[in-house]
Structures are given as C-alpha cells and as structure tokens.
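Need residues for this backbone.
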C-alpha cells in the first residue's frame, strides 16, 4: 500500500494508509466530520460504493462497511436505486437553507470564486 494520502475529488474525504485507524474507520469519521462541518449538506448524494472505492483506492467491502456503519448511525441513508444520501435531520427550513447553501458553494466553486468572496456576496444579499 502506498504511503500517500488519497483525497476523493469534490468531497474532501481522505484516507491515510499509514494511519493507525483502519481505512473504513477513517472514511466513517471523515464523512461524519464533513457533515458536521457543513461540507456535506443534508440531502447531498454520495458516490456509489464502487465509485468511492475506486476514487480512494480502497476495497469495495471497506467502503461498504463504512457506509453500513454510517447508515446505522443515521448519518446517511440508502434510497434503493436512487443512491446513498446524507440523512436529513432537524428543522425543514434549516434543511432547505443548508441545501441552498451547498448549491451556492458548489456554484461558487465551479465559477472559480474564492470562499471569502462568495461569503461577501452572500452577506450582501442577506443585508438587502
């Protein structure tokens, strides 16, 4: 196994092969942290098990084990053939705002707008 840190594009999920924690536990913890930090908003679609395994250079069973643990903890939810999503919790208004914020952040990223500039634009809009 290589000694470099692998990052799943767009998700900010990293696995360090040299870390003491098992890869599935690193992945589980990284998803929880991304949800708590707001990088993965409620309702966000996650990659397929096979797709994420390929991106991270992990075995499919390792990612499946992490997804199963995350689902048991209520962090994510499987929706059959529609895929796996970050679970939606809390106030519906807050969920809607989190979804809109995630979409805004994704748009800013696609347009190459720095986070500080995107925040300034949002602050201006909120003050209007």
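Answer:
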């Amino acid at each position: 196994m290589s000694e470099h840190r692998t990052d799943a594009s767009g998700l900010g999920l990293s696995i360090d092969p040299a870390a003491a924690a098992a890869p599935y536990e690193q992945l589980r913890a990284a998803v929880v942290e991304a949800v708590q930090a707001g990088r993965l908003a409620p309702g966000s679609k996650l990659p397929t098990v096979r797709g994420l395994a390929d991106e991270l250079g992990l075995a499919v069973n390792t990612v499946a084990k992490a997804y199963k643990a995350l689902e048991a903890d209520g962090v994510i939810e499987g929706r059959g053939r529609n895929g796996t999503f970050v679970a939606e919790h809390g106030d519906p208004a807050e969920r809607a705002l989190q979804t809109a914020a995630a979409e805004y952040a994704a748009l800013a990223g696609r347009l190459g707008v720095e986070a500080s500039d995107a925040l300034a634009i949002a602050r201006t809009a909120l003050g209007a």
